[in-house]
UniProtKB/TrEMBL annotation:
Keywords: DNA damage, DNA repair, Methyltransferase, Transferase. It holds the Pfam family DNA_binding_1. InterPro entries: ATL_DNA_repair, MethylDNA_cys_MeTrfase_AS, MethylDNA_cys_MeTrfase_DNA-bd, MethylDNA_cys_MeTrfase_DNAb, WH-like_DNA-bd_sf. Residues 5-82 form the Methylated-DNA-[protein]-cysteine S-methyltransferase DNA binding domain. This is Methylated-DNA-[protein]-cysteine S-methyltransferase. It catalyses: a 4-O-methyl-thymidine in DNA + L-cysteinyl-[protein] = a thymidine in DNA + S-methyl-L-cysteinyl-[protein]; a 6-O-methyl-2'-deoxyguanosine in DNA + L-cysteinyl-[protein] = S-methyl-L-cysteinyl-[protein] + a 2'-deoxyguanosine in DNA.
Length: 103
DNA sequence: AGATTGACCAGAT
DNA sequence: TATCTGGCCAATC
């Protein structure tokens, strides 16, 4: 798979994340077909053109931690209805979006 | 062209 | 449970 295609899939998945839900980099990479590309997901998010309007604030790491150096993300998630723990991490069990939920 | 870093993850200690 | 290490790919120095 071309890296470009991989990015395209990543962006597609991220754009499909509904309000009030979040996903992990690893999960996105997995859905994109390359579970090992978690780092590329994060890299792609940071370098994603704003014209894509990606809800990258709904993307967190496997621990539910928010993006380092981006305190605004916390406020954004709270405004979307995402409940954050006292330590500032997302309640993954409550907000981790699962595409195959109705499986 | 080689080495280092990065919005990560999983396993090991 | 918390911290460290190795590995992954791409971009930058």
């Amino acid at each position: 798979m071309d890296r470009i295609q991989f990015y395209e899939i990543i962006y597609s998945i991220v754009k499909e994340i509904p309000v009030g839900y979040v996903m992990t980099y690893g999960q996105i990479a997995y859905l994109a077909g390359e579970p090992q590309y978690a780092r590329m997901v994060g890299w792609a998010m940071f370098h994603a053109p704003k014209e894509w309007y990606l809800p990258c604030h709904r993307v967190v790491n496997s621990q539910g931690r928010l993006v380092p150096g981006w305190q605004e993300q916390k406020a954004l998630l709270e405004k979307e209805g995402v409940t954050l723990k006292a330590n500032g991490c997302v309640n993954m069990k409550l907000h981790q979006w699962q595409p195959a939920d109705h499986e």
